[in-house]
Design brief:
With about 475 residues, this protein is α/β, with parallel strands linked by helices. The protein folds into three domains: about 1-30, no CATH class; about 30-160, no CATH class; about 165-460, no CATH class. The protein is built from two helices and 35 strands. It has helices spanning about 35-90, 250-265, and strands at about 1-5, 15-20, 20-25, 105-115, 120-130, 140-145, 155-160, 170, 175-180, 180-185, 190, 195, 200, 205, 210, 225, 225-230, 235-240, 265, 275-280, 285-295, 295-300, 305, 310-315, 320-325, 330-335, 350-355, 365-370, 375, 380-390, 395, 405-415, 425, 430-440, 460-465. Strands 8, 10, 11, 13, 14, 18, 19, 24, 26, 28, 30, 32, 33 and 34 form a 14-stranded mixed beta sheet that branches. Strands 20, 21, 22, 23, 25, 27, 29 and 31 form an eight-stranded mixed beta sheet that branches. A hairpin with a 5-residue loop joins strand 33 and strand 34 (about 430-440).
């Protein structure tokens, strides 16, 4: 083992020998070579970092464009829905987009170019259209939006239609008063104003911004907002809003009568007081009413009828209704004498509870009276009505009998031209006739699936929509 040393002369190499191992230093003029690997390493790190940043930037840009394209696709799909709603408002029986193809539903697909104000193509929407079920009010429109030069697509499906009177839990052409013991679930609307002291589980609306309530509706001679009272929550109070048109119902009754003649059941004048219709699981039992007293009615021998094919029973006379609607049945019972003469207008009476077999939308019952819908004094003390009730020219109510009942619950809707009440109270708020407890519960299925051929109100609107 040898060691050689030299003075610290940086221009003279140092030499170390250990056995057979030998190390030599580089001369100072070559020491700069140490920086090259370090620089290369830094360059490599920088290049890798730059590649990551650029890749991430490119990815973000791609993602951003993808998000923008999806938003554009959704907007185009919405444009398709709005276009067909406009189309139906101008031609409410055209479900083939101004074509004759295809012959059978669902109709489509119909491709539309969508352009901006400068006639530049933004993208397309493609429509498929399902017409309403017989007697229904909802057109199903499926719209697929796709931007120009993009593979992004969005699909929307909407039910478009004119809302029916069954779209409200309560609607009236006159003012209304809901007391402290009354509760509503669903939309409430008066063409005049609403005095609301009850519990609301949905909008309470009036067509007037202000009105002076009548004394019989709790008025104090003062001007009040369209909706007022101690009930609520008052965040549900809305006024003014557009009114509903009860006059249109006369034309709708003619349509219902024609539908009954075509594929339903029409009964003419009874020659007696009217007809009693008892609903059963498999059929309807119908008899003539020969006498009415304070404790009930007397009828002739009943006859059994199958439920109408199109769900329409039109009776040109007064009607008494009770019973349980059969499973998966949808039925409208209309009581009217046409042509319309005020002195011969007809009434429906609900002398016993009317039930659905199921509350899942497969059971729907509509009761339409040319004049009144009445709960008579021989009704049970606890009355349940599963139905949409419509009195075109009169009341949905129980007249004053001086008899107090316990409760009435309506699961469905009430539309009444004149005032509605189940309860008569004295100056102290005590019930002196009618039902002590009342409840109106809206059947949410009625929005898209009203009773067959049920009268409509308003203009076309989107009743429901979802992204597929």
């Amino acid at each position: 083992m040898t060691f050689e040393f030299c003075h610290l002369n940086l221009n003279v190499p140092l030499k170390f020998e250990i056995g057979t191992w030998e190390f030599r230093t580089m001369k100072t003029r070559n020491n700069n070579g140490y920086a090259l690997p370090f620089i290369l390493m830094l360059a490599a790190v920088f290049l890798i970092f730059a590649a990551v940043v650029l890749g991430r930037s490119a990815y973000n840009q791609f993602q951003s464009k993808s998000v923008v394209d999806r938003v554009k696709a959704l907007n185009l799909a919405e444009a398709g829905i709005n276009y067909y709603m406009w189309h139906l408002s101008h031609n409410n029986t055209d479900y083939q987009d101004d074509t004759a193809q295809p012959a059978n539903p669902p109709f489509g697909p119909y491709l539309h170019q969508y352009t901006d104000s400068s006639s530049n193509t933004i993208g397309t929407f493609t429509l498929t259209i399902d017409p309403p079920t017989q007697g229904g009010n909802a057109v199903t429109v499926t719209s697929i939006g796709q931007p120009q030069n993009s593979s992004a697509i969005k699909t929307l499906q909407a039910q478009i239609g004119i809302p029916s009177f069954s779209g409200y839990v309560f609607v009236s052409a006159t003012e209304a008063w809901f007391g402290e013991t009354e509760e509503t679930t669903g939309k409430v609307l008066s063409n005049i104003g609403v005095h609301y002291d009850g519990v609301a589980n949905g909008p309470v609306m009036a067509a007037n911004a202000t009105y002076t309530p009548s004394p019989e509706f709790g008025g104090d001679g003062e001007v009040h907002p369209g909706v007022w009272g101690t009930g609520g929550p008052q965040s549900y109070f809305q006024y003014p809003v557009p009114p509903v048109n009860f006059q249109q119902i006369t034309a709708d009754l003619k349509i219902i009568e024609d539908a009954a003649i075509a594929q339903g059941l029409r009964l003419g004048a009874s020659g007696q007081l009217g007809y009693s219709v008892n609903l059963n699981a498999a059929n309807m039992t119908i008899s003539k009413v020969t006498r009415e007293r304070a404790n009930g009615i007397t009828t002739s021998s009943p006859h059994s009828y199958d439920y109408p094919q199109n769900g329409v029973l039109f009776i040109a006379d007064n009607v008494w209704v009770s019973g349980t609607l059969g499973p998966s049945r949808k039925l409208t019972i209309a009581s009217a004498r046409l042509p319309d003469v005020s002195s011969t207008n007809t009434t429906i009476k609900i002398g016993g509870s009317v039930h659905y077999t199921q509350n899942d939308g497969t059971n729907v019952l509509g009761l339409i009276a040319q004049k009144d819908i009445i709960v008579p004094q021989y009704a049970p003390t606890n009355l349940k009505i599963d139905a949409s009730l419509l009195a075109q020219k009169g009341h949905v109510y129980q007249p004053y009998y001086g008899k107090v009942f316990n409760s009435v619950e309506v699961y469905g809707s009430i539309a009444t031209f004149d005032f509605w009440t189940w309860s008569w109270v004295d100056g102290y708020g005590h019930t002196v006739s009618g039902f002590q407890n009342t409840s109106l519960i809206y059947d949410e299925h009625l929005t898209l699936s009203p009773p067959p051929f049920y009268p409509k109100t308003g203009n076309y609107q989107i009743l429901n929509w979802r992204e597929q």
